Amino acid sequence: MLTPWAIKKLEGLTLEYMKIRCVGKECYGFVAVHRINFALGAFHALLAIMLLGVRSTKDGRSSIQNGFWGPKIVGWLGLIALTFLIPDGFFITWGNYVALFGAMLFLLLGLILLVDLAHTWAEYCLEKIEYNDSRAWRGLLIGSTLGMYLGSIAMTIVMYIFFAGGGCSMNQAAITINFIFLLIVSFVSIHPTVQEFNPQAGLAQSAMVAVYCTYLTMSAVSMEPDDKRCNPLLRARGTRTVSIVMGAIITMLTIAYTTTRAATQGVALGSNGAAGYAQLSPDSEHGLVTQQPNERREMRAEALRAAVESGSLPASALDDSDDDDGSDDGRTSKDDERGKTQYNYSLFHIIFLLATAWVATLLTMTVKMEETGDFAPVGRTYWASWVKIVSGWVCYAIYSWSLVAPVVLPDRFGY
Known about the structure:
This protein is mostly helical. The chain has helices spanning about 5-15, 30-50, 60-65, 70-85, 90-130, 135-160, 170-190, 190-195, 205-220, 235-265, 295-310, 315-325, 345-365, 380-410. About 65% of the residues lie in helices and about 0% in strands. Helix 2 (about 30-50) runs antiparallel to helix 13.
């Protein structure tokens, strides 16, 4: 949507009836990009509202999330068509302010998830080592930590050699600050005071944060414009095309990972998510025990309930029994969300709403259209480079706070 070729094709689909302009000038898809993403964002916003309060598949609205794919696609296409009836001025304002704010929220969300992933990975490995005394997991933890640190150092050396020449003060500063932050968080993670309040903290988490932030810095310097001759990747014709394509692929993969993990891992965001079942109360209703079973099924139900209340079995065992009993009615597929949904449906769509704002902002922010051919660069601007650089710094700050917080607020953490 960002190139003259794409604009001509889009206008051709409307039989030349629609002319895409921005304040009297061709905008090469600025408004078109925001129309498409606005329609997709509105689609997810509507679904988020419709699915508010859905806790299990017993709620009839759950079928909206897990089915009706044809009508949902038709509805999304209808929203796209409706956006072309909205004046261009609305989308110029939307893109410059509202979408930009949503993009910042999505970016911050991705950084929080990265820090959460680092802690989860290290704690999972430590748990395996502690309970199983596994040499394999110990070797995996140590090897991955060393590998990520070596990767961070290697990327730093490459950046200094190829992207930090004379006159490239921005790159020199970004690379140096990133390396200093790398050393700081590594030292803090093994500080005796931090270890006393959070014994699970260590170099494993720091290594993952360091390699990701170093990658962000390398991505920033390798995707910036070459007006100061600080980006040798863009000088060769073949390398330039490859960098555009690879930048687009990596960007979209990152967005896909962030949206999927954030939408389905509500625990990291403060949501109840799918973190188990609530304790059963004597008066609570459950599909298994509210039916009218025969004598044998009643005995089985009582035995299962007693096992659940004693803690021998999880509450999900009652749902499993529900599914087995329901097989007589022709249900062959297992419903694992009768007791509780695996993730928050509304949160799922809110995350995707923010993702549409980030994609639209990344595609349209300060791209110089005279430099584009049939391929439009994704993220090859100083704005995008600085966003990545600052994102790395914010990620270091979030991770540092996760280390220091148990020391500052010991009552809030149960280590």
